[in-house]
Amino acid sequence: AAAAGGGGAVAALWSEVNRCGQNGDFARALKPLNKILQGSREDATALHCKVVCLIQGGSFREALSVINAHAKVLPSDVIAFEKAYCEYRLNRIENALRTIQSAGQQTDKLKELYGQVLYRLERYDDCLATYRDLIRNSQDEYEEERKTNLSAVVAAQSTWERVVPEDLGLREATYELCYNSACALIGQGKLNEAMKKLQKAEGLCRQSLSEDSDVTEEDIEAELAIIHGQMAYIMQLQGRTEDALQLYNQIIKLKPTDVGLLAVIANNIITINKDQNVFDSKKKVKLTNAEGVEHKLSKKQLQAIEFNKALLAMYTNQAEQCRKLAASLQSQSPEHLLPVLIQAAQLCREKQHARAISLLQDFAEQHPASAAQIKLTMAQLKIAQGSVTKACIILRSIEELQHKPGMVSALVTMYSHEEDIDSAIEVFTQAIQWYQQHQASQPESPVHLSLIREAANFKLKHGRKEAAISDLEELWKQNPKDVHTLAQLISAYSLVDPEKAKVLSKHLPSSDTLSLKVDVDALENSHGATYVRKKAGKLSGDSQQKEQGQGDVKKKKKKKKGKLPKNYDPKVTPDPERWLPMRERSYYRGRKKGKKKDQVGKGTQGSITAGSELDASRAASSPPTSPRPGSAAAVSAASNVIPPRHQKPAGAPATKKKQQQKKKKGGKSGW
After folding, report:
1. pLDDT in tens, 187-205
2. Do the domain assignments include residue 85?
3. CATH code at 13?
4. Is 27 a domain residue?
5. Could you tell me which residues come within 8 angstroms of residue 525 by beta carbon, excluding any fewer than 6 positions away?
6. 140 torsion bin: left (phi>0), alpha (psi -120 to 50), beta (else)
7. Residue 250 C-alpha from the chain's centroid
8. Helices 217-237 + 241-253 axis angle, to 10
9. What is the span of the domain harbouring residue 90?
10. Cα(445)–Cα(533) distance, integer angstroms
């Protein structure tokens, strides 16, 4: 800094400022600068030096206020870089852009800042051109940093704009360049290659930081956190959610200072949890609300976080919060599908399916470009309600999907379920006509021919033989050498016109041309054969005789004649109703009621009816039906005496057999 103003005191103050600047002690330099400005408030050099000292101390807001307060003294050409840099650091990106563009002279440092501003505004094409120009036209110690920034722009294009990056020929000598290259590969879906790049970046980072003796292992792990976070993201994309979750949680335990990294990791954990472990998701969502997150992430990242917040509110039954977040998202991105889908899902959880379908219908009418996806969702809701026919009508209204094989298959299946065969055939016809109109130059399109064949099979299955024959004839004309189609056509004609089928069968190739040269013995003796023929040479003479003898026995066996009843008389014609139960026969008059049977259970309890006898002598003479307690027949040993209730009756089997014989004698024959 040059001395300004007169007098020895002022010169001494400038000497102090100069000494502090050379030592990098910018905070101490502010004191002599303020004394200089007390004597000369409009000293442009002192004001400029003060602004620089404030910026070096991180006081961007105070530096900007000094610039704005002395706008007449500090012209834009002199102070443009400092002003734009303060605005950039205060996240006033649009203001910084205007300041840079209004500067009269575009210096290298302004171009560097311009590239950073364009990156923050996500104007990646302009940013790429700026860094290319800087690398081409400048040679200094910051070349490696410019290349790193250039690779970061390419990675952002690949990730957020799905642009295939061009090979810039950058030598990946640093871990930053390796990391950016890995991010570009993730955007292209090359996950395995990206993982290898990240592993290389991790090795370079450890090697670079371990060379510094002041760097601890904790510092290295903190620097590696962003690389590990990207590794976990690849694992998540590959379906290795457990490994990804473990690595995410390890990074969170390190408590990195980068709020953007923490927000992204917390969001990814929430997506893994989905509707499970909602309490953990509620804790993690707080990390996404940290101060300054909105300045660290891209618009798409912030949008994804807001979507997941709305879904989490839905999963935790916070209906009002879910609606509020979804409505806010829809106002920010009116064309986006997710906000309206979240609102419809919330309405369905509240059993308001009609309102959900109405909401989707309104969105489809207002945004025709997204109508197809919305109508697919509407059809799904109709199917869930059991309105399959209405779902079919919605699906058939999606003109751009009517001819797709998947749509045709879905519609035919649904119409078949509703037994509406005519509508199913109409779906086939419309799809075939579409291919005939739009692929006139390719009449033998595989999809077209496949649809015709499926239509013919469907018609044959549901009895529409003439229509099926028409489709098969068209197929055969397209490819007269197709034996499979010809066989189907002959089979169809055999049901309608056998003579025509005979005529067509002449076109079939001869059996000689169709015969396959197959070695039957080799096939039967192969490793996978289920049946292996035994070789004759291995059988001995005895075994052959034995097998032959068994064969003779089998031949002599005759079928046994059925048994006839004992009272069978061949002269008498059998009763034609003998196979019917007795109660169902025409001559059945009911059972005769016995006297004793009628008297059973009549009278008061304990009373004696007429004709009944209580002769104790008869009861004593009759054999007991079960052994008496303590009888010798029931006891095998004195040490193993079984209580009376647990004893097995000695005469029970014989008694039971006698009772069965008595019942058999009293039964009536069916003859």
Report:
1. 999 999 999 999 999 999 9
2. yes
3. 1.25.40.10
4. yes
5. 532, 533
6. beta
7. 26
8. 150
9. 7-138
10. 48
Cβ–Cβ under 8 Å, residues 377 and 352: no
What tokens appear for 397 in the block? 């209204």
The residues near 235 (Cβ < 8 Å, ≥ 6 apart) are 241, 243, 244, 247
Fill in the amino acid letter for 564. L
User: Distance from CA of residue 524 to its chain's centroid?
Assistant: 46
DSSP string, 573-628: PPPTTTTS-GGGSTT---PPPPHHHHHTT-SSTT---TT----HHHHHHSPPSSPP
Q: Is residue 262 part of a domain?
A: no
Contact 421, 415 (CB under 8 A): yes
Weakest-pLDDT range from 27-41, 172-186, 289-303, 549-563: 549-563
- CB contact set of 199 (below 8 Å; sequence gap of 6+): 231
**Cut 0.85: pTM above it:** no
What per-residue confidence (pLDDT) applies to 328? 92
Q: Can you tell me whether residue 216 is helix, strand or coil?
A: coil
DSSP, res 260: H
Give yes or no for a contact between 227 and 241, defined as CB atoms under 8 angstroms apart: no
φ/ψ (deg, to 5) at 637 = -155, 150
What amino acid is encoded at 161 in this protein? E
- Domain membership of residue 32 (yes or no) is yes
Q: How far is CA 671 from CA 563, 592, 668, in A?
A: 13, 20, 9
**More confident call, 264 vs 516:** 264
Angle, helices 405-417/446-461, rounded to nearest 10 degrees: 10
| Residue 351 token pair | 């059993």
CA 660, distance to chain mean position in Å, is: 68
- How far is residue 397's CA from residue 136's CA, in Å, rounded to a whole number? 55
The domain tally of the chain equals 1
Residue 116: partners with Cβ closer than 8 Å, 6 or more residues away: 88, 149
- Alpha-carbon distance 456 to 432, whole Å? 12
